[in-house]
Amino acid sequence: MRNVIASNRVAWLAAGLVAGLAIAALWRSEPTYANTGDRDTQFSMATIPVGTSAAGINDPMDGVLILDFLTGQLKGAVLNRQSGQFVSFYSRDLAKDFDVGNADPHYCMVTGYAQLPSAQGATMASGVVYIGELNSGKVIAYGFPWKETGFPEPLPLQAISWFPWKAPQKGK
């Protein structure tokens, strides 16, 4: 009797394993994306997705962005997969975009995934950076073109769109 019960358990275990593997093989998988960020009192640094494939292989790649709170300069770079060297460089003067003037600017930066269409013959990076500023009450989304081989000159990050999240502070 024990042998019959033991053999049934093994059969059920094997059947469950086969069913689980079949479901896992047929179930559509979703890729996950994670960006990282950190900040200090004077600057913030974050990663941003730039591309999702190389030579037809799904191989996501990130760039890095640094926001200097004191100067309002946003700068970034992307590594080349083959050489391991930074080949694409980007920059933007946020103080002008947010028109902070003599006010003490308070910036906040996050990155996200947004598959933007190609523009002017350049493939846009798959990520965007969102910058918010307290005095102006604006959030601006920035994107940038990207290609694996890089660009000969640094490129400006492109303001894509913006919205007011609060009224500007008076006298600022």
Fold topology:
Blueprint lengths: L1 H25 L10 E3 L3 E12 L2 E12 L4 E7 L6 E8 H5 L8 E7 L13 E7 L4 E6 L11 E2 L1 E7 L8
Parallel strand pairs: 5-9
Antiparallel strand pairs: 1-2, 2-3, 3-4, 4-5, 6-7, 7-8, 8-10
Short description:
With 172 residues, the chain is of the alpha+beta class.
Biggest sheet layout: 6 strands, mixed
Query: What sequence of helices (H) and strands (E) makes up the elements?
Result: HEEEEEHEEEEE
Helix/strand-derived category reads: alpha+beta
Average of pLDDT: 84
Strand content: 35-45%
Strand order of the largest sheet: 1-2-3-4-5-9
Terminus-to-terminus distance:
86 Å
Shape: elongated
Estimate percent helicity.
10-25%
Count of folded domains: 2
Q: How much is the radius of gyration in Å?
A: 24 Å
Which keywords apply here?
172 residues, elongated, alpha+beta, six-stranded mixed β-sheet, four-stranded antiparallel β-sheet, 10 strands
How does this structure look, described?
There is one protein chain. A hairpin with a 3-residue loop joins strand 1 and strand 2 (43-54). The chain folds into two domains: 1-30; 37-164, no CATH class. The mean pLDDT is 84. 17% of the residues lie in helices and 41% in strands. By secondary structure, it is an alpha+beta fold. It has a six-stranded mixed beta sheet. Strands 6-7-8-10 form a four-stranded antiparallel beta sheet, with no helix packed on it.
